[in-house]
Amino acid sequence: MKICPKCGEENSDQSLFCEHCGFEFANTEASTEESPKRNQGTNLQETMDSANYTPKYTPNKKSVPKWPFIIAGVALLAVVVGVGFAMASRGEDQVVQPSATSSSSSADTSKYDDIIAEAKEMTINGEYKKSNLKLSRISASDLGKSEFSAIADEVDELTEKNEEGLQQEEDKEAAQKAQEANKPAVTTSGSSSAFSGDYAKWANTYYFYYSQSSQKQSALTIGANGSVTQKNVNGTQYFGEATITSASGDVLSYETNEQYPSEMPDTKSVNPNVKITVTWDNGGGTQIYYGYLSYSSRLALTDGVAKNGGVNEVWIS
Predict the structure, then answer these.
(1) Strands (E), 112-186
(2) What does the alpha-carbon distance between residue 101 and residue 223 come to, in Å, rounded to a whole number?
(3) pTM of the predicted model, to two decimals?
(4) Which residues, 6+ apart, have CB-to-CB distance to 315 below 8 Å?
(5) CA–CA gap between residue 243 and residue 196 (Å, rounded)
(6) What's the CA angle centered on 292, arms 289 and 297, to 5 degrees?
(7) Which residues touch 162 (CB under 8 Å, ≥6 apart)?
(8) Total H helices, total E strands in the chain
(9) 287 FRET partner, CA 20 to 30 A, in 3, 114, 215, 255?
């Protein structure tokens, strides 16, 4: 049975026109046939679109805080800036180093010449403490540099001489104290084995003035009680007893103006003040020294014996 789409009345299935309003069913059928196809395609497409459709996730912007991203960005920026500064500083250091080397190689080594000269003069004059004090004005950091090696050698040499001089002064003071504690013993010949009174200053420590190749002596110490000790280069020692008397006449000696001569000094004749006779232990015999005051105000001893164009033994305090 057909339902008329126009008036809604029922008609037989064979009717071509509506029995009530005359509507032509042929148009309706054609329309019906096309519609399902068109709707079917549309539904099919919609079904396929629905199958392939994936809903997009849209996060809730309010649920994600922004401050972690801000902090991370600031931290990253700080790291980049820090690396930049470090690279820049390293570059500056590399640039400065050549100039520092250049200034070091051109150091003024002559700035200490006056100090060295004054210290040498003080050492020669026996002002050992003042000489050391003068040398202390030289920068220790400069002495450690290779370009100041010559200055460092001179400082070491002068310091060693000053220490020797100070040791001599201490020995002399000790001898004077020992002399005060002992009474002089006068022999029948009128000589004194004790160095007291005007002779007290000759109780001293003396050093060999100019060493020749065959010389082995290094230091000679005369005590206030007349005891004698000679130290040798090889470490051995000789012991003896000394007597002292006044002296006159001329004897041979060296020019003793220089503190430590590196070449043989000139010889000269001197008028001695005292005569010191040493009797060596164990049958070592006797030896005579003549004492006088040098131009540099140091005590000197000479045996007056010529040897190899010079003098056999000359000692100086």
Answers:
(1) none
(2) 57
(3) 0.42
(4) 206, 207, 208, 209, 220, 289, 300, 301, 302
(5) 11
(6) 135
(7) 123, 128, 129, 131, 132
(8) 6, 14
(9) 255
